[in-house]
Amino acid sequence: MSQSQSSELILVGKIGASYGIKGWFKVNAYTEVPEGIFDYSPWVVNLNGQQQEVKVAEWRRHNKGLIAKFDGVDTRNDAEAWLHGEILVDANQLPDLAEDEFYWRDLKGMLVNTDKGYNLGTVSGLMETGSNDVLVVDANRNDAFGKTERLIPFIQDEVIIAVNKEENTITVDWDPGF
Question: How many Å apart are CA 61 and CA 29, to the nearest integer?
């Protein structure tokens, strides 16, 4: 990634505790398939507001997790310097999706309307809860129900009726008073 090109960086994981004495650390992957995080290169690590491009030298599965080491990171102390770093990749590296698929980042900023035509607000984020994902919707200032935020479960075909990327809207079956 050249510095002259402006590109969006996407969070795909986080660096965990150091592992062993030879510069390895645990990797917490946010990718659908955990090992998929290693399909992206280079990584940009965001640590204390500073971003640095790094190359993964080696990685492997360990127990139920993943461990890795960067080029030039050869001691436990070196690895500990990366603790809690956020792993980012260039959005252009993400695979293209089918017409009816989308990334979470695509949903942010979309308008959310009920199937009865009530505007619930704009998607400001998403949360993982374990059982299902949840849309965080910032309500309009003049919301008739006095809401400032709504949490709407992202359950397709039940609550989420349609996601229209062209119109930047999400249609839901949801009570505006809830």
Answer: 12
Q: Which two tokens stand for residue 10?
A: 């996407």
- Rounded to the nearest angstrom, the gap between the alpha carbon of residue 13 and the centroid of all alpha carbons in its chain is 8
Instruction: Return the minimum-mean-pLDDT range out of 4-8, 40-44, 166-170.
Output: 4-8
The predicted model scores a pTM of 0.67
User: Which residue in 119, 120, 126, 122 sits closest to 103, CA to CA?
Assistant: 126
Q: Which residues contact 134 (CB under 8 A, 6 or more apart)?
A: 126, 127, 128, 151, 152, 153, 154
Alpha helices in 1-135 (DSSP H): 76-80, 104-107
The tokens describing 41, both together, are 């290169």
Total structural domains within the chain: 2
What does the pLDDT read at residue 144? Answer: 87
CATH code, domain with 45: 2.40.30.60
Asked if the structure places residue 1 within a domain, the reply is no
Q: What is the pLDDT of residues 130-168, one digit of tens each?
A: 788 899 999 988 888 889 999 999 999 999 999 998 899
For residue 23, being part of any structural domain is answered with yes
DSSP one-letter code for 28? E
